[in-house]
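Example with several molecule types.
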Amino acid sequence: MSEIKRRDFLKILGLSGAGTGLVGCTQEPAKKLIPYLVQPEEIIPGIPSWYASVCGECPAGCGVHVKVREGRPIKVEGNPEHPVNAGRLCSRGQAALQGLYDPDRITGPLRRVEGSEEFQAISWQDAEALLVERIQALRQSGRSDRLYLFSDSSVSSLDRLFDLWLGAIGSANRIIYDSFDVEPLREANRLTFGLAEIPRYQIDEADLVLSFGAGFLETWITPVQYTRLFASSQRYQAGRKGRFIHIGPRVSLTGTNSDEWVSARPGAAMLLALAMTRVLVAEGRAGARGAAIRPLVEPYTPERVAEATGVDAETIVRLAQEFAAAPSCLALPPGVELADRNAAAAHVAVNLLNYAAGNIGRTVRFGPNVLRRRPASLDRLAVVAEAMRSGAVQIALIHGIDPVHTLPPALGFADALENVGLLVSFASHMDETAARADLILPDHTPLERWSDHQPETAVHGLMQPTVNPVFDTKATGDVLLSVAGQIGGDLAAGLTWPTYLDYLRDSWGAVHRDFAPFQSFDEFWREALARGGVWREAAAQPVTLNPAVSGVAFDDSTLDGGAAEPLTLLTYASPNLYDGRGANKAWLQELPDPVTKVVWNSWLEIHPDLADQLGVRNGDLVTVSSPAGRLDAPVYVYRGIRPDTVAIPIGQGHVHYGRSASGRGVNPLTLLSAATDRASGGRAWLSTRVSLAATGASVRLVEAQGSADDHGREVAEAITLAAAAEADRHAIEALAQNPDALVEASEDADPKSPYRWGMAVDLSSCVGCSACVTACYAENNIPVVGEARCAEGREMAWLRIERYYEQAHGDTGHGPEHGNPSHEGNGSAGSLHVVHLPVMCQHCGNAPCEPVCPVYATYHNPEGLNIQVYNRCVGTRYCSNNCPYKARRFEWFDFEFPFPLNLQLNPDVTVRQKGVMEKCTFCVQRIMKARSDANALGRDVADGEVVPACAQTCPADAIVFGNLRDPDSRVSQLSRSGRAYHVLGELNTRPAVTYLKEVVRGTEEA
Amino acid sequence: MPSHRGTLALGLISIAGLAAAVLALQAQRPRPSLSVALAAQATQFSLDPDTLVGWGDGPVQPIFFSHRRHAGEYEIDCYYCHSNTDMSSWASMPPVELCLGCHRVIKAASPEIAKLRGYAERDEPIPWERIYKVADFVQFNHGRHMRAEVQCEECHGKVEEFDVVYQWAPLTMGWCLECHKKPQEDEGKLQSAATNAARFAQPGPESRGLYPKSIDSQYGVLNGPIDCAACHY
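Resulting structure tokens for the full complex:
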């Protein structure tokens, strides 16, 4: 489309000389000033354009706004109007830019050199001709069914084009693949309610959330949306707070946000949910609904399941009673990583619990369903692998997935690929599957292409190119249409669109008729592009109990491994790397894992007792053996896992994929067999037991934070709900007496200044997801330093999330403060509570860094900011030594941004060089812009006009920034809360960052 | 400490002296003679090669473009070519298309315009020699200065009199601050030094020595902010 052509970003390379000029003295200053040939109307150099699109990093389909400067995307932010994410984004979404500008991207079509590991570049014309020739040969021999097409499970126009194209070729072999499928959930809903759909969980409306393990704040289904909904009911506000109980063998990132952790054996979810349902039914709390399900749950008394689940009967009864007594409640299923061979039955059990409590149609809502294509089961993939081995697959086309990395080797899929006649990969990056391909036809990355995505029933997201392709890539839709055209005949007859965009517009005809039949299509299309799609609230689908549910067999799941393998293996999706697709994004590798704080590596989580037994410490290598395979991994000793379970994150262990990914960590799939859930065919991740053996060797496991204990220094504070309400009462009284009172830190600015910038961080909202950290990297040109530098404590993050194991203070009789912080894992309440504490420069009013600077490079500005002037700094590092928060970072080296990563640099922020100190600036460039804009209008900056990158992306809305001199600003109001405290405030640093204490709601608090 | 400071000051003085000497030398430097080709070009534009303003100070550009002719003689507004300079942080350069808007017809036969057409036909932007560049580590917002009604010539000189544009202002921090530090001329906001002094005497956080008094007084008092972070971040 001509609109995109004009957005030609190469032509303006010269004008951006002003941008590269900021790179510093070490680079050649720009000597040329190169104008446009024809200046695109929508581009004014120096002023960003924003394009609405959809995030393509996971199947959740969040809406994004892409900030484009002079034709280059430099920042991705959530689309505030989009119903899925409402303006927020996770770390993976923020890092989409590093996928676009990945220096290891495939730069053009490649063909394997016969009998070699090497590829050679070929032209698109030759590449397509090769594919055409092979398809024609197949069709002539009448074996079109020997062509297979593999793709991901998202519902989109491309997905429909795949079906059309394959149909026209004459093959039915469309294999849909999803590394983290939710088939057990879908099947359970069919069994329980007769509806094979994925409902919306209204977490925001639940006073009590009881999770059986789903990682809904990390990777499960639609994590940004869930985090937002979770925070809206679970944060402390006006004396109330929801309660969240996490049941499972391991405290995941999601689990760290619980008010109580009930340590249960892996695979115990089904029995626990059944026993709790039975309690509800037996005590008459399920009303009329009880009669229908009574026979199903009758056998599962709490006493009977106590032994098998590792949770005592009393606790089960208490949890059930709490659940029933809550004004509104919601039980969430075991999710992906705890899906075992009987996962569908476990999901049915959780459905029954929700049904008994009357949640269906209330907190579990069918109608606005999450849409995913049903992926092929592992059994089906095993059949396909067999077909490959027998030579029955002549051509395999693989788009958007990396099955070699994400399938257990035990399935034999990777080896079978060797026997495919022509393996064609559409990958943009050299992933493990692409590395085995015969022909690579690289697709654009999501930020470069036209596409769409329907993540929910009535939500149609539209993706548009935000940049001209960085490399010689071509949209797969265009390749397929071009190939069809070249083959011609009947094949071309059904696929007459000249380009994929024409097809996409055609495909949106149906959406147009549905959403705006009285508007012209062009107008509808323009508006949809500007908004990022179209959406509305889907009608509710009422469901009733399916009589077939009585046939569900609640059998025990089986695990591979015998007496020689005593420990259950839990593999979980890395919150940073997802299924491994994030592994070559250096931001995500350097982002500390939210739970363990480990960077750039894999690890094996084991309980301290088990570590003692084996005589190993953090970093010691142990050999993990399962019936399917073995691997060596460094130990991470973690209190939040049961002694009978060990855990390894999924995502690392790449051989190919690029400089940040390859040769790093281990891929735990080596240990798994190709196990599936019996009823649904979904993957059973919880399927094997393992044994451990210390090797005697060790590696340096790099942790970004040393101790998880604040040693009583009140760095991270948690209080009980009662204590919070009490503190709030005092604060409200004080405020009533003096409504215009300002916080102390507001004094620390020029008396004439209308502003004293400050921040409030609500720890009861913060879930520790670390999206803010990645957003900060993207906004502020923060270099990535690599594992070795991280080990020296020289990571450059301006914002970090510290996590502390912290008991809540307060005087209530139950709940976590009475929980035993030991490692018993006996199902007792609250044995691990975690506070996530985002730490950035505190912009102290009485900053210790300022008086020690000999060259006056750091000082307090009239608006209360603690400023760092890079060109004054001579690198004495006195300031850093004197900073009690370790907020300052020193550039020990000139860090490189290898092409094309340098294209992502924000031209509004200086790229620092060796020998300079730096730290959080409160996104001073955004303050300056807001001030300048307000100035032009002849007024002061209003509340909410300055939003730093961290606050902008926070899915939980935990970070609030603003003017402390305005008593009505949100930040002022929060800073006067009864829960407000300053980290290390006793040092009289007078920080501008106010933390609001984490609140933990105990058993009997409401 | 005082001895250190002394050494530093001495050093600075000697550097300043050296710089002054260099500048003096430059001022005396003989005016380079025009190349024959350029002289021919100038003549062709009915300009006297001996009176070319700016020759020797500015670089030779790929196309002999005279601001004197365009902005001076023909009084074309600066904004006509450098549009959006009041909106954006970057001053803009006219796209080749804009030049051709007139020159498809005007002076189409001139060899310099043929060069221009050549760039357009080859789809090649004109590689102008860059003249103005603020120092590294400075975030300069062009639009903000325009909105503050700073006139073009205050920083760029009387460009309408230049045949060859050269860096008219030194673009040093001292030069920037010279203007920023002037009292605001708006009568309503003009405040005397005495008022400023009175404000410094007020009890307030600055009395704790948190930041220097000199940085204090930018709200409605001075022409521009003199806080480091206004430009350095």
